[in-house]
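#structure-requests
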Amino acid sequence: MKDSQILSAFQEAPARPAPAGPAPVLVFDACQVGVVLRAVLFVETVMGAGAMFGAVNPVDWLWRMAFLSGAALPGTLAWLVVACSLKNLLARLPARAQQACGALLGAAAGAFGCALVALANLTPGPAPWLASAMTGALLAAALVAALVLRARGRTPADTTARLAELQARIRPHFLFNTLNSAIALVREDPARAEAILEDLSDLFRHALAERGEAVTLADEIGLARRYLAIEQVRFGERLQVEWALDPRAEGARVPPLVLQPLVENAVKHGVEPSPGGAQVKISTQRRGGTVVIKVTNTVPAGQGRGGHGVAQANVRDRLRLLHDVQAQFQTALKDGVYQVRMEVPA
């Protein structure tokens, strides 16, 4: 299936917690692009507000802002570099210890910024070492607290996703259709019937398994293959599947159960309502530091995309929770072809 028309609709881009209580989990990842951008913007905003105190006019405010930024920006970047370098070490600490370390690193970063200003002889009096260290600690503590709240937001999203997928797996018509297909093949083709039941078992096992916050794209592709193998028996020639996979993209990290729901949507809204069937194409491609994942399907003539977009919203939210601004999720319907396009870091 050629999807060049759909592609033109997009712009090219770049130990689990124990149930009994909190376990060591990295609460702030300073290596993520989104964290870097938020940290710099947050500190610069605070410096801008602080520069307003005592400023008599806009020009005076700009001078004060430049002075404060000259101290705060190097300190912020130093905090990010050190926190990123210590990422693996911090991940071994309890959450409260990580937050304390973040604040202590902030104090050191504040003192570092003060040292730069002192070396440049920009302070009229004694260097404000204590004030700078306290300000750095408070800013770092506020940023870490915000990231902790964001990390906690993953738990309900993952739980909701798993429950939604479980419901999709055990919905009556899917289960009954699969079992009926297997029963019909028991005498005619026992080996194929056994393969269908094995695929169904793998689907249930995958949905019920305790998994981390991320799996490889190769794992998700394997699950999608099992699902389509089951549906292929049900729809026969009406379901035309095409794979265009880039082996270099298989190691990309994605949330669990992120590809199969999109493939299931393609079957449900493309193949089921069409008497003549439909085409479903799954493609992956690595482009530099980015992996592009596309699920494309034809839709019946005169019909738009059905459904309420619950599965898509779920996938989009979990991608953003895992990869922040480095993840992209887009959809488009053009000339009877519907496509979901995702981008994740390689």
